[in-house]
Amino acid sequence: MTAGATGGWHVATVVGARPLTRSARELTLSVPGLEASSPGQHLDVRLTAPDGYQATRAYSLAATGQAERADLVVDRVPDGEVSPYLVDVARPGDLMEVRGPLGGYFVWRPGDPGPVLLVAGGSGVVPLLAMLRARRASSSRAPFRLVCSVRGPADAIGREEIDEPTPGVEVHWVFSRESPPGWPTRPRRVADDDLAAPGFTAADGPDVFVCGPTGFVEAAAALLTGLGHAPDRVRTERFGGA
């Protein structure tokens, strides 16, 4: 794939790549002219084939606050046009185009002092990981609770980093198909009990961010509003089909 900057697009060079799971990979891009982003924002990524065919997809930023750099976590989509290239093929030195940072609604800012409830399904953890990284890198003391739902331990993006003990941060994993050895619960879906934690109830008024596949997001949002969270406090970002 090759790239040439036009309009609002920037030429990005891959400068780092590391696998995170059997299907996910983190790419670090050097992007001259790219502005620093906020936790929760995303980039459009455009690839151009030698015959001129172009494909564009949106990817959440996994780390933020640094200009002219982009950290993306990409999960391979079977039969996808862009993600298989980014996960399996792209190497340091390769070029692509990016546009952004984009999005102002699904954003957490380190200056916000209130409690934050993050709910992730699968690779939907990426923008929430950016929020967690931003909190850890700042002087914020906002209470955080991150609920991550994944198929099994092999699919848990960034689990070691996410589980790093941090004062004021709670992490709760839900495994839907395969639990780790010795895990106290059987595989299941996210339920009310996972979301109704002390300090993060509707009465506590947390900012709520939910990200994942469409079906997961709709189900989680329904649980949250059923627990009394005001719909306008539940921000959602989804991907894929229903």
TrEMBL record:
Recorded hits in InterPro entries, A to Z, give: Cbr1-like_FAD-bd_dom, FAD-bd_FR_type, Flavoprot_Pyr_Nucl_cyt_Rdtase, FNR_nucleotide-bd, MRET, OxRdtase_FAD/NAD-bd, Riboflavin_synthase-like_b-brl
- Give residue ranges for domain FAD-binding FR-type: 7-108
UniProt KW keywords: 2Fe-2S, Iron, Iron-sulfur, Metal-binding
Q: Which organism is it from?
A: Isoptericola cucumis
What cofactor(s) does the depicted protein rely on?
FAD
Question: What is this protein called in UniProt?
Answer: Oxidoreductase
Q: Which Gene3D superfamilies match?
A: Nucleotide-binding domain of ferredoxin-NADP reductase (FNR) module, Translation factors
